[in-house]
Every structure is written in structure tokens, then in C-alpha cells.
Amino acid sequence: MLRIMRLALVLALAAGCGGSPKAPAPQPSGYRDGLVEFIPLGVTTGITSVIGSHADLPSKNGQVVFVRLAVINHYRTFHDLDVRKQLLVTSDGRQWEIDGQATSIKRQPTRLSLGSGNRVEFDLYYDIPATARPKELLLYGEPVTDLGVALPEDPGVRAPLAVP
Fold first, then answer.
1. pLDDT for 149
2. Signal peptide position in this chain (predicted)?
3. Distance separating alpha carbons of residues 65 and 125, to the nearest angstrom
4. Percent above pLDDT 70 for the chain
């Protein structure tokens, strides 16, 4: 009886040993400004109007571009982020601020308070000329010291965009 139980145990353990474990999916690499990490997840161009539940907004300049962005707080405490400071840079070198109306219509944040280790995803909306081509984001994580004092100058970090 004991031999049968041992044999059953060996067979049960061997059944779980087949195949190789699957490797975890690769994570996109991010761009850090201070201890805030930005990961551009996608870009959509050529939108002629922004449609929301309470308003429709045609593009004033020719096209609306939206960028899906993940942000991770690597600080050991809460960290505030002003989403309005994130700029889109087009291939001609011009810098574009987020479109406040499109952001409001799509109910996206303009300020965030992230807990330590938290990750959040949201969309940035920019209204740019129809002929302009998005090149990169100029992102500002508003770095602080260990005591939470804002650093005097934030050069930001450039994150290239993969535009189809």
C-alpha cells in the first residue's frame, strides 16, 4: 500500500514537470524624469474632431493627435504631476501644449497625485496642423528631493514616438 502511494506521488509530481515555463511578456521601456517613469504606449493621428458624451470639438488646426501614456511613480511617497506640462514635439521642431478642451471632453486628467509605486494610464490630446508629424514627447515629472522639495530646474525627458 505504501509503495502504491509513493508511486502515485511520483507520477503526480512528474505530470506537472512537462514543458518549459513561459517567459513573461516584455515590458516597454520607459523614460525617467526624476523618479517618475513615462511609457508612451501608442499614438493616433489624423483625428478631425473629438467626440465626447457632452460635446463635439472639431480640430482648430487640422488634426487632433492623442498619445496613450503610462506613468509610474518610483518615489517612496505621493507625487503630484501636472499633466498640462507634457508637450508634443513635431518633426519641424515646434512644441505643442495639450488641448484643454479635448482633454476635458474626453474626461482625462490635468493633474494627478500618484501613490508610491502606482502606475496610471491616460491620454494626452494635442491639436496640431494636418501636415505636422508627431516626433516625440517632452515630458516633465517634476522631480523632488528626498524631502519633497521641488528641484529648481526640470529639463524634462524626451520620449520618441512610433508614429505609423
1. 76
2. 1-25
3. 6
4. 83
